[in-house]
Amino acid sequence: xxxxxxxxxxxxxxxxxxxxxSCPSCGCVNPKLMPxxxxxxxxxxxxxxxxxxxxxxxxxxxxxxxxxLVRDELILGYEPGELHQSGLVLDHRHKxxxxxxxxxxxxxxxxxxxxxxxxxQDLQMELQTELEGARLQQQTREQFLKxxxxxxxxxxxxxxxxxxxxxxxxxxxxSVQGRFLSEAVPAIxxxxxRLMPAxxxxxxxxxxxxxxxxxxxxxxVTAPILGxxxxxxxxxxx
Length: 238
Ligand SMILES: [Zn+2]
Fold this sequence. Notes:
Layout: E1 6-8, E2 15-17, H1 37-51, H2 55-62, E3 65-70, E4 73-78, H3 86-90, H4 92-106, E5 111-116, H5 120-150, H6 154-166, H7 174-195, H8 202-219, H9 223-236
Parallel strand pairs: 4-5
Antiparallel strand pairs: 1-2, 3-4
Helix pairs in contact: 1-2, 1-4, 5-6, 5-7, 6-7, 6-8, 7-9, 8-9
Zinc ion binds at residues 9, 11-12, 14, 23, 25-26, 28.
């Protein structure tokens, strides 16, 4: 039996077999097995020039360096000061044409993604930031759920959510309020499942309403809309 030689993945550093098509850890495609990305990108750029008559787009494509292929994403690196040019390349009208040209040339349907920087290290940083962001988001979600779980009454649930809101920086901005709601609504739906009996009494309804009203006051939505969002969430199953 042949022993596959192991080399560290150029993107994540985990060992991968020399003949493995892509890294089992990060999904980046083994550069040895890929047609060279640079000639591919040059070819696609030339083809695009004949299809789309827009010199600004051509320049934006020429400014990009293909860094790697990760799963089905072709990573285009830009000098940080030139990243704004990627907007033209990623504009869906152009992106479709470019992706089709890549598919015709490489028999792979790839998506384009632009990053600041042109090296593998730049890509590592980008992926790390992305991972970190996802981790933080997950943490916030869990924190919210815990907050609501801890509340054994509607009053306590409302109190905790409001305390949580009061601790958020820039909570006067609607963007921040929207983000808060995207976490608070599932938390309220979860509390609803726990605190609301199958046949709510008027007292139950009033206690729940009070939570909606207190949160609505602070987040620029009306209480019935907030109640609606919770209902929608409950239908989806929280
Ligand atoms: Zn890897």
